[in-house]
């Protein structure tokens, strides 16, 4: 069993790090924290250096000032890389973390080795946009756990919820314990920034994977395909019968997809380095 002790950057970002090899950064979704990545940390750390951190306003990290934009969240990741003295890394972002990963790719392309966007949003329909705006208003009025039961129903299969009540209860508690202002600042970005610099996505020139679950109602397969069409050479993976929280519900399945991508990207990088040398 891998035992990790959280560390902290000078700016106040809480993170976990383990393993050896090329660095892989994991960014969680809104309302969650770095602990969601337990299955991926175990599965990837045998071959890669894996770093999971708490986004601004989440877990044990610093709160974002009111009005912080996506660049502020990308800057948090940049500060983490600088603290760890990592010139480049592959970034894996889940849901809201996928928006942060996209922003990082656009603002700091020289620091990016590869990009994976899991169960994230792009080009919401009017109905989807109205729904997430309504949930933002509910969170503003009633706090971070205003939508917890509906969120858990969207995120997990009924079978998984029934078989893992303690884990579901723990995630419900995580949602409820979020800092209200940090959560709301983040959720407002999640609700409104799905088209963030969409016309610039063609500038991303690293190996890229866009993946989601076949049954993910908020981060749909169509969103994944549309996003991948904007990024040159991006791969798409739609995981059969999976819902939103597939990294937690099906870690082995997700890890297989991630390792296939990471290993292929690493081989491509090694070949290019050999040619250059």
Task: Please outline what is shown here.
The chain is α/β, with parallel strands linked by helices.
Describe this structure in words.
The protein is α/β, with parallel strands linked by helices and 277 residues long. Helices cover 47% and strands 15% of the residues. The protein has a single domain (7-276), classed as Rossmann fold (3-Layer(aba) Sandwich), CATH 3.40.50.1820. It has an 8-stranded mixed sheet, with helices on both faces. Helix 1 links the parallel strand 3 (23-27) and strand 4. The termini are far apart.
Calculate Rg over CA atoms: 17 Å
Strand content: 5-15%
In the sheet with the most strands, the strands line up as 1-2-4-3-5-6-7-8
The SSE string, one letter per element, is EEEHEHEHEHHHHHEHEHH
Largest sheet: 8 strands, mixed
User: How widely separated are the two ends?
Assistant: 39 Å
What assembly state would you assign to the polypeptide chains in this entry? single chain
From the 3D structure, determine the CATH topology. Answer: Rossmann fold
CATH architecture classification = 3-Layer(aba) Sandwich
> CATH superfamily name?
Alpha/Beta hydrolase fold, catalytic domain
**Integer average pLDDT:** 95
Shape: globular
What is the helix fraction of residues, given as a range? Answer: 40-55%
CATH class: Alpha Beta
Please count the helical segments.
11
* Number of self-contained structural domains: 1
Low-confidence stretches: none
> What is the β-strand count?
8
Q: Would you tell me the structural class of the helices and strands? A: alpha/beta
